[in-house]
Amino acid sequence: MSTEHTLSRTRTPAGVIGVGAMGANHARVYSELPNVELAGVTDHDTAVAKEVAEKYGTDALTLEELLERCEVVTVAVPTHVHYDLVTTCLEAGVNVLVEKPIAKTVEEGRRMAALAEDRGLVLQVGHIERFNPAVQTVGELIDELDVISLEAERLGPPIDRTAPGNVVFDLMVHDVDIVGSILESTPNSITAMGTEDGRYATATMEYDDIVASLTASRVTQKKVRKLNVTARECFVEVDYLEQSVLIHRDSYPEYVNDEGQKRYRHESVVERPRIDNGEPLRHELASFVESVRRNDKPEVTPQDGIEALEAVQTIDQLVDNRQGKTPGAVVSDREHETDEREVEAP
User: Fold this and answer.
1) Which of 103, 156, 254, 340 could form a disulfide with 109 if both were Cys (CB 3.0 to 4.6 A apart)?
2) Beta strands in the chain (DSSP E)
3) What is 12-126+282-301's CATH number?
4) pLDDT tens-digit series, residues 279-319
């Protein structure tokens, strides 16, 4: 098997390892990007791999064959096998985008990061919400604001109602990463609680003088994906699904005459920044490929993925503690290992 790949000057050969619901979407987007050639897909279920390959005009291959053909791959498989597969890809000289969370344990994530650095390869973590146009707009605004607090809600029933899922690792991890990227920091302390079945959780994360409150739910019967930012200058509402941002500025209370009747009203200035809407996955994969072609640091680094994993492991442990193992507490040392579980695609 070849261990070196020369970047194409025209189209970058890409592949997908694991073509379930999320992996199949990666195959679709790679097949659509103008500077990318979908060179093949692979999956432990060969029938699924052949179906996806036929749909997007490529080949179903073995892992070894795929790595021979590709310069970049997406690894979209259950978390507990991330380490083995990502390591195999990096050792073959192939750049990797690995779906979130980066690995089953922090130590595995660190080893993966070290190997990528040693080989001079790009390892990007698939925190897709970073590439939501609404989130990117807020990122451009945040440096101008004196932020007091952030509130994130990621609610709604699963697409597959039979899938157990753990909302901390499946859903809340997105908002943990977004908050960390917006504040460019890691939390000083975390408190959390949730239900025993792992379908509902809340967490409070303190960053010096800023507080972030996160809620994730699989029992709420309405799909909600929102982020609110309270700053001294304004209040910002972000809707991930609508890809919209509303900025509420100075509020003016006053009494007015309405046909002889005194009436109280409260007016505020609402700004709607222009947002170039688009598919976050397309932005994510285009950014990944561009990082590889330029040999630049990816938008979401392995360290970003490790920090998000540390935080969600702590939150998950605190939720478990609240269920009676030990008393829940504020935690700042986030070195915990998570249970081995398959993490649902976002």
Assistant:
1) 103
2) 12-17, 36-42, 72-75, 95-99, 123-126, 147-155, 189-194, 200-207, 210-217, 224-231, 235-239, 244-258, 261-271
3) 3.40.50.720
4) 999 999 999 999 999 999 999 999 999 999 999 999 999 99
